[in-house]
């Protein structure tokens, strides 16, 4: 896809305001499994509007004990 086409799609999504882009839970889990030692004894702030809909918040809440 050309850069111009990509920009057009982003502009269209920006104008629509109803487009929401969420990272899937499985993608978060697959990627962050490589960084478990980096999160040990750390505080993670999840900046989100609603923690009930944030997959990042859900992931860290589920893995809190680990």
Distance between the termini: 41 Å
Structural class of the helices, strands and pairings?
mainly alpha
Q: Report Rg.
A: 16 Å
Q: What string gives the helices and strands in order?
A: HHHH
Q: Strand percentage, roughly?
A: under 5%
Shape: elongated
> Helicity, in percent?
40-55%
How many strand elements? 0
- The helix count comes to 4
Give the overall average pLDDT: 81
Specify the biggest β-sheet: none
Q: Pick out the low-confidence regions.
A: none
Describe the structure in your own words.
By secondary structure, the chain is mainly α. It has a domain at 23-66. The chain has helices spanning 3-16, 25-32, 36-39, 55-62. The model has no long low-confidence stretch (mean pLDDT 81).
Which SSEs are present, and which pair or pack?
Blueprint: H1 3-16, H2 25-32, H3 36-39, H4 55-62
Q: What's the short version?
A:
The protein is an all-alpha fold and 66 residues long. The chain is built from four helices and no strands. Helix content is 52%, strand content 0%.
Which key phrases capture this entry?
66 residues; mainly alpha
